[in-house]
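hiii so my PI (J.) wants the whole complex modelled not just the main chain, which honestly fair. so below is everything: two entries, each one labled with what it is. i double checked the lines twice but i was tired so who knows lol
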Amino acid sequence: MIEMQDIWKTYTDGTHALRGVSVRIDRNEFVYLVGPSGAGKSTFMKLIYREEVPTKGQLSVNGFNIGKLKPRKIPFVRRNIGVIFQDFRLLPKLTVYENVAFAMEVIEAPRRIIKKRTMEVLDLVGLKHKHASLPAHLSGGEQQRVSIARAIVNNPSVIVADEPTGNLDPETSLGIMNLLEEINFRGATIIMATHNKDIVNSMRKRVIAIENGNIVRDEARGEYGYEA
Amino acid sequence: MKLRTILRHFREGAKNIIRNGWMSFASMSSIFISLFILGVFLLLALNVNSMSAQIESQVQIRVFLQLNVEKAKMTELQNKIGNITEVSKVTFVSKAEGLELLRKNLGEENKELLDGYENEENPLPDSFTVEVYDPRSIAQAASQIEAINKADETQPIAKVKYGQGTVETLFKVTNALRIIGIVVVIGLGVTAMFLISNTIKMTIIARRREIGIMKLVGATNSFIRWPFFIEGALIGIISSVITTVIVLVGYSELVQFSQMELSLMMIKLVTVKESGLLTAALIIGLGTLIGIWGSTISIRKYLKV
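here's the output for the full assembly
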């Protein structure tokens, strides 16, 4: 569960990315984060996986007080949050298998279990047969599926996805969305920032719109609400 | 940390050398070149040092006796001089031996100059050749021999000679050479450290994105640091072992080749047996240290994500 109370985020150059945001996202929700570029969507997500710290306000993620988190505790918060990026962020010199397994090595899982679970997840994203390939040899959609596999391999309770379909064609995007829906169905909370009108309108999930650092709209079964 | 994680770090550290092939190669080359130059200069310095020691050890005291000293007195003197703590060896050189020595020193062309001075006509006095343990205490030993002479009422010693003045200059020169050797070796060592740590820094800068990704997945700092640490150490060890082998094999070839050439000039090179351990220890130790140091220092910067 994620709870923000009057969250402000001011960067060192003086820009206010968030201006007093309060919101609550429950377990197993699927939330779209929409709004113009630079509105504060990315900051909203970075706060959740503690890449940034709130300047003011209370933020609790899975029971951790993010603002007061000691630096050495950060890794342990992140292990319960899967992060997916527009640019995939795979380790370029590691194979598909190694990229996914890395997230499990971090939690010091036994090798046998790592092998079993990694192949299981690669099967789920449909890339079992490419486990020995390097990311550079995969298409964009395939790379994104690897990054999703990495994000879910430890069964995190929250998935944060920052424009996961931003670099993909509509057909591939649909495949990614089906995958995220499947993961949501299996119990994970999903927070996804997107500019993709079609996806938001067709899925009819909770939509939070951010403009100029404020939440301007929060609908349970919302629409994209902007011209694409 | 669990054992399987430690093993994992070693595996990853070794794999990373291959994964980052060209960067590893660049680091290794840089370590190799720096340590190679260092090794060559170290051997040079060791040889200068040993040559200085050889030259210094040739310094000795000549004690010339009066012409009329009796046999018993000579033995007494020899014993007294031998009892001086600095003195390692006293050799009696008779008149005849002295003449022989002089003739030898004059060389083939001039040896007839001494013809007719044999036996009763020999103008040379009997003498002692005195050697000391530490060449630097030669002046002290000489003055003690003179003191023995003064204490004896017959004053049996005519002259004590050890190349006063020349010896002091020789020591100044050999000392300067030693200091220059040490300074050059230390200077090269420091330069090597900076050069190499810079190369390693470059390889890590190239990988700071990777470090960022690892942190996002929830890796702790030590989890990220260990493979880098092992990678750095391995690169340091591998390249310094290669350097040591090449330097020492090359040097032993040089020693063998030069044995004939240089022995005529009375120069003896330090053998591989004598210098090998020091050279190997210094090169490998420094290489490993630099590898670890370079990777540890530079990664610390990128862990603050």
